[in-house]
């Protein structure tokens, strides 16, 4: 039997009402979470610039504005060379003092433990040292520092890294690293082919693929510090990595080999800097921030 005209109109109105109701529900569901995200408290510098916040390893931190060399990368952020389509779709979780930081970098002055901060005297100091020391091959007192949060079950030592580096060196370049009888500044030293260039039978004159390598172990025998240093002409630079168990982080530094005798002091100084940036989960500072403008 054919439905009458008014019945068809009634059915159409009911269907339209249901569609509108569902659309309203979708709007409510989609919009509501954004309204519930709390805005975190930010510490700021004298210019009003907000700190960079997050959790590095096991500690919440507030990094003074103007300190970071580049930017902080959070866990899950696409890499620099990630597919642009992936980058376009990625949405980082809201910032908080619990948002895990993957890495960030800063500049630390070895001579006094200060850090580079834009719009502070250290900015002028760094520029002056660049212009006057480097061209004259004088020791550059700044270390380039990168801090990495270590999450999950990743080991906090360089046991495998060192073993694998030595293996690759021997298999690929036929260079064998040999432990030296005497430690250097408390470090166990390894030299490529015992310090002798196999082509000339004389001490290496260039460190191409043959840097000096140094390690330091903890009481349990785990390698916590791994340093390799160049000795080519005027460069003489060191690449220095160490782990910190309390923070669950790895730190990497590069600096002039002139400062190698201070390697332990440098590790301590870097940790003092990071400690000065610690905060509660609400953002309350636990001490005076090193590098605050």
Residue share in helix: 25-40%
Beta-strand content: 15-25%
Largest sheet: 9 strands, antiparallel
The number of distinct helices, counting runs of at least 4 residues, comes to 5
Calculate the mean pLDDT score and round it: 88
Radius of gyration (Å): 28 Å
Report how far the terminal alpha carbons are from each other: 83 Å
Strand order of the largest sheet: 3-4-5-13-12-11-10-7-6
Stretches where pLDDT is under 50 for at least 5 consecutive residues are: 19-34
What is the element string, with H for helices and E for strands?
A: HEEEHEHEHEEEEEEEEH
Global structural class: alpha+beta
| Apparent shape | globular
Number of strands: 13
Protein name: Lipoprotein
Organism: Snodgrassella alvi
InterPro entries: Smlt3025-like
Fill in the keyword field for this structure.
293 residues, alpha+beta, two-stranded antiparallel ribbon, 5 helices, 27% helix, 24% strand
Verbal overview:
The chain is of the alpha+beta class and 293 residues long. It has a domain at 8-37. The chain is 27% helix and 24% strand. It has 5 helices and 13 strands. The protein has helices at 5-36, 84-89, 121-132, 159-173, 263-276, and strands at 52-56, 59-63, 73-74, 101-109, 142-149, 177-179, 188-192, 196-197, 202-203, 212-217, 223-229, 237-244, 249-256. The strands form 3 sheets. A 9-stranded antiparallel beta sheet has the order 3-4-5-13-12-11-10-7-6, with helices on both faces. It has a two-stranded antiparallel sheet with strand order 1-2. Strands 8-9 form a two-stranded antiparallel ribbon. A hairpin with an 8-residue loop joins strand 6 (177-179) and strand 7 (188-192). The protein is globular, with a radius of gyration of 28 Å.
């Amino acid at each position: 039997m054919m439905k009458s005209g008014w019945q068809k109109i009634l059915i159409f109105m009911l269907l339209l009402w249901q569609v509108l109701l569902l659309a309203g529900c979708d709007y409510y569901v989609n919009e509501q979470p954004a309204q519930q995200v709390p805005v975190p408290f930010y510490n700021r510098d004298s210019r009003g610039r907000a700190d960079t916040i997050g959790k590095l390893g096991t500690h919440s931190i507030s990094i003074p504005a103007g300190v970071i060399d580049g930017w902080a990368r959070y866990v899950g952020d696409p890499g620099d060379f990630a597919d642009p389509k992936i980058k376009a779709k990625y949405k980082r979780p809201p910032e908080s003092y619990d948002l895990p930081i993957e890495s960030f970098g800063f500049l630390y002055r070895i001579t006094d433990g200060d850090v580079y901060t834009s719009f502070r005297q250290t900015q002028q100091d760094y520029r002056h040292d660049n212009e006057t020391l480097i061209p004259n091959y004088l020791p550059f007192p700044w270390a380039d520092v990168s801090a990495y949060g270590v999450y999950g079950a990743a080991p906090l030592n360089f046991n495998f890294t060192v073993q694998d580096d030595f293996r690759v060196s021997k298999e690929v370049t036929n260079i064998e690293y040999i432990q030296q009888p005497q430690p250097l500044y408390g470090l166990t030293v390894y030299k490529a082919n015992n310090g002798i260039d196999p082509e000339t039978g004389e001490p290496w004159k260039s460190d191409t693929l043959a840097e000096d390598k140094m390690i330091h172990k903890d009481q349990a025998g785990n390698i916590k510090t791994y340093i390799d240093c160049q000795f080519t002409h005027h460069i003489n630079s060191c690449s220095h990595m160490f782990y910190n168990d309390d923070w669950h982080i790895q730190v990497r530094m590069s600096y002039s080999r002139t400062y190698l005798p201070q390697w332990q002091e440098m590790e301590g100084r870097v940790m003092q800097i990071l400690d000065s940036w610690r905060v509660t989960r609400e953002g309350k500072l636990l001490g005076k921030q090193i590098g605050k403008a």
